[in-house]
Design goal:
The complex is a heterodimer of chains A (254) and B (157). Chain A has two domains: 111 residues, Probable inorganic polyphosphate/atp-NAD kinase, domain 1 (Rossmann fold, 3-Layer(aba) Sandwich), CATH 3.40.50; 117 residues, Tumour Suppressor Smad4, CATH 2.60.200. Chain A is 19% helix and 46% strand. Chain A contains five helices and 17 strands. Chain A has a 15-stranded mixed beta sheet that branches. A two-stranded antiparallel sheet of chain A has the order 11-12. In chain A, helix 1 links the parallel strand 1 and strand 2. In chain A, helix 2 packs across helix 3. In chain A, 39% of the residues are buried. With 157 residues, chain B is an alpha/beta fold. Chain B has one domain. Chain B is 24% helix and 45% strand. Chain B is built from three helices and 13 strands, in the order H-E-E-E-E-E-E-E-E-E-E-E-E-H-H-E. In chain B, strands 6-7-9-12-10-8 form a six-stranded parallel β-barrel. Chain B is globular and about 40 Å long. Classes of the chains: A alpha+beta (254), B alpha/beta (157). The interface between A and B is medium-sized, with 19 and 21 residues.
Chain lengths: 254, 157
Amino acid sequence: MYVYLYDNYLNNKKFHSVLKSIEIRLVDYGIAGKILRLNNYIDVKPVIEDEIKRGAKNVVIVGNDRTFGHVLSRGATCDCVFGFLPIGPDNTIAEVLGIPEGIAAADVLARRRKEKLDVGWFNNRFFVSQLHVPPAKVRVVYDERFQVTTPFKMEVVVCNFQPFYWKKSKKDNEEFVVHPQDSKLEAFLRPLTKAGWFGYNYEDPSIFPFEEMEIIGDGPFVVEADGKTTKEVKVKIRLAKNKITMIVGRDRKF
Amino acid sequence: MIFQRKSPVEVVEEVVEETLVEVQPSDDNIDTVVGPSVNVEGDFASEGNIVVKGTVTGSVHTSKNLIVEPGAKIVANVRAGNASISGEVRGNMKVREFVELTATAKIVGDIEAQTIAMEAGALLYGKVLMPGLESGEPSRRTGRSRRGEDGSQESGA
């Protein structure tokens, strides 16, 4: 049995036609199921567990990167197969998973090509898309073997599924992109060499693949993970291997 | 006519093969990059390629390629599969296959490698050991005077 978790923004009229056509395609394939609409105040984990008790085997996330992060950061431990139907803007994770946008995603879902995926774990919480520390005075210790420091403030981005887009400076027209791989977390460290009223300047990023790392700050620093922002002094990040089973496309990037 | 038609196709295939061969090495997954103002301290080990643009202190170990860019500094013993050095290395280097020292390279320490290419202008202060030569001519290693005559075992600048 399938359960579909729709994001709140899909109530917007402009998505109705896409949703209708996807729902028709799902009925054709015989994989239509219960539809639940999410909002910011719903804790997804008990919702999914309830549905699993009622016999659900597959939970399909319908939305964008934010929805994907919102559901899986809480529901990663649930014993079910996850699917993803990307609709609307801000869908970078779908590309990594090889799932096309719109109605073609229903075909991928019907093919049921399952893969076990890794998720990130930090301070007793999962993150699936990206963890971001805005420029702060921090040092990073990798696998308790070596530490990385810089005299400048440092921005740290840890990518799991979401690609990392970056620019060298505000005026820079060229945008760089780094695609993450599975089975590893990638940390991008960028020292902020200049910041002021008239723009900023970042150095070329340092890239470190790792399985465990610690970010230690001189003071409290901001951490954004899957759309949630907290302040921490020390963050320990680990890779939880083969944590979620996901239906992926043939053109996935791992 | 048939032969004339076939030949351009063959040429195109050859060109495609050549480009593929050229692309593959540059497409190597660059796994670890140490940025220009970044300082790494400790046992720095990676299973993939390492590109150093900043400073590394401690030890460096990779089974694949190590690239030290101009301006970069390594104060550490280095073990790598292949190495291309354009920056400064203070420490002994043990490379499994090939070492390339470009014109801007500065090495203070011994180098042990299968093959070494050294561009004019590269600075080296230390011993160069090539295991192939040892196994090929074992009798020459015994006499100190003979090693002096050869002059191939040590080099300095």
